[in-house]
Amino acid sequence: MSTTTLSPHWHFDNSYATLPEGFFSPQPPVAVAAPQLVVLNHALAEQLGLDFSGSDTATLSAIFGGNTLPTGAKPIAQAYAGHQFGNFTMLGDGRAVLLGEHLTPRGQRFDIQLKGSGQTPYSRRGDGRATLSAMLREYIISEAMHHLGIRTSRSLAVAVTGERVYRERVQAGAVLTRVASSHIRVGTFEYARQFLSDEDLQTFTDYVIKRHYEGLQNTQNAALELLRQVIHRQTDLVADWLRVGFIHGVMNTDNMSIAGETIDYGPCAFMNQYDPQTVFSSIDTYGRYAFGNQPKIAHWNLAVFAGTLLPLIDPDPEKATQLAQEVVNTFPAIFKQKWLKMMAAKLGIADVREEDRALIDSLLEWMQAYKADYTNTFWHLSTDHWTPTDHYATASFAEWHGQWQQRVAQAEGGMAAAKKLMQTQNPAFIPRNHLVEEALEQATRYDFAKFETLMQVLSNPYHYRPEYASYQLPPPPQTDEMYQTFCGT
Ligand code: AMP
Ligand code: MG
Question: Is 254 an active-site residue?
C-alpha cells in the first residue's frame, strides 16, 4: 500500500479509533490492481466541503480505489455482531474499512467508509470485495432515498478496481465510498454486550450518546432514554420506507443503524403492485423481511437492542428488564400513530383522525385486490392531470374516491390544500427495479448514459417532468414475479 497522503480538503477527526481496542482493528484498505474512478457525486462532495476540482483523475482513482490514503485518515475495520434472520453471529466489517470521520466546514461529522476494500480480520471466508454492479446499485438507491427525503447513508464515489470478482458470474470489482452519520449498529451493541466488559459497554454507550443523542448526556437513566430515542428514530424511518414502497430486504440487527439511517443496501427493492407480502430477496424464503413485516422486525430488533443495555439501565437485572420491556412495548402504539399520520398525509389529510384509518385501509385493500401500482395510485390522486382509466375506472374505485373527496372537503383548504401536501409525500419517480437493472446492465459495460439519466430523474422525485413519463411506468406484467435481489454481491 502506498503511504502518500494528499488533499488539503479532508478534515479527519477519528473519534471511533479512541474507543477501547476491542471495538475495531486497524486495517488499511488492500491496494487494487488498477483503480479507476467511474462515478463521483459532486453535489455530495460540495455538501461535505470537499473540493476535488484541483485533483486529477489518477489521484482521485487512487483515493477512491483505496490505494492512497487521504490526509488524516486512520483506517479501521469495525467489530460488530448481529442477529441474521434471527440467529446471533459474530460479524464485523468483512469488506469495508472506515477511513475516518470527516468534519464538514459546518462541523457535522460523517464516517467515510470504503466498501469492497479487501479482506479484514472479520472477513471469515469472504474475499473482502464487491462487484461494480452491486456498488452502483447501492449508489443509485441510497442517493434516491436521500432525494426522497429519507434518512440514509450516502454514496460519494465508485471506483473500479481492475480486478475480477468471482460470484455466480465473474464480474468487475469496485469500491464504493459511503458516507454516513456513523456505521454504529444495533449489532455493535450486541457485540459489546456479548464479547466486551460492562465497562466497555458503558464507555461505548456514552460515546454513542455524545455522538448521536447529545441531548441525553445529563439525563437520569441515559441508557433507557437512548432506547426511547432510538425507537423514535427507527419508527420514523420505517414509516418513511412504507411511504415510498421501500423494502430493505435484510433487516438483520447488524444492518440497523443507531443513528436511524437506512444502511447496508443489499437485496433492497421498491414495490410496484401493492402487496404487503412483497419480497424480492433470493434468500428470504419465508418473507421475514417482506414489505409489510418491516415494522414488526424493527420492533424485534429494538427488543434485542434493549437487551444489550440492561446492565446500564439498572444494576438489578429484574428491574432493568422490566424498565426496558416497558419502553420496548411502546413501539406498536408509536408506530401505529406515525403510520396513520404518514398514510393520511399521502391522502392529503393533515388533521388526521382515528376514523381515517378505515379510509386508508379500504384504499389499500382495493389496491391489493386490483394489483394497483403503489406509487402511481398515490401520485395519480395528487395531480390535476389525471383521468381515471383501467382499474381506476371501476365502480369500486369510484366509490372510494367519492368518500375520499368528501373527507378532504371537510378540511381547511379543501382539495387544493390536500394536493399541495400530497405532492410533498407521494413521489412521481422512484428507482423502480427494472429501471435500476437497465442502468446497471449498461453501466457494467462502461456506458453510463442510462445511469446518468436515471440519477437525473431521481434527484427530484416529487417534481413531475413529462419528458420522463416513461420512468413512471411499472415493469411489464410478470416481471416482478421473476425479479430477485441478492446479498453480499
Ligand atoms: P451484509 O449482509 O452485506 O450486511 O453482510 C453481512 C456480513 O458479511 C458483514 O459482516 C459483511 O462484512 C460480510 N461480508 C459480506 N460480503 C463479504 C465479502 N465479499 N467478503 C467478506 N465479508 C463479507
Ligand atoms: Mg451489513
Answer: yes
